[in-house]
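U., I forgot to send this yesterday:
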Amino acid sequence: MNVTVRAATLADMRVVGRLGALLVRLHHEFDPQRFIAATSRTAQGYGSFLGSQLDEPSVVVLVAEGSGTVLGYTYAGVEGTDYMSLRGPAGVLYDIVVDPAERGHGVGRMLLDATLAALAARGAPRVVLSTAERNEPAQRLFARAGFRRTMVEMTRELG
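Result:
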């Protein structure tokens, strides 16, 4: 299949929302105390939110498309200095999701590479991301793309 990566459009948001809901479900399965659960409204809400970001100049929303079907998406942005994170200006990769039926064919890497290029074009000097501790396939993708571990999030429930 010939896959292209392009800027997302409002017409893509139904599928992007469905993929975003998959991301929410996966993380909730990893750790239901830490991550929110998906609801019947998650896909619509996710798609609506990402659709509202499309015209933001510091935001990147890309989709991978093959045979007229959206196979995955990325959502990223360029942020300034963040004293809470102890980092200077950076691109931040918020989401990268590939439809489970399309994984293992290089779609995620294509999306990641295109997102890194788009963030660099917007002036990002580096890119940071977070990944769930149990999401080993994503961690392998990021390591192969040159990312290194820099932070570890820890969670404790109170009460």
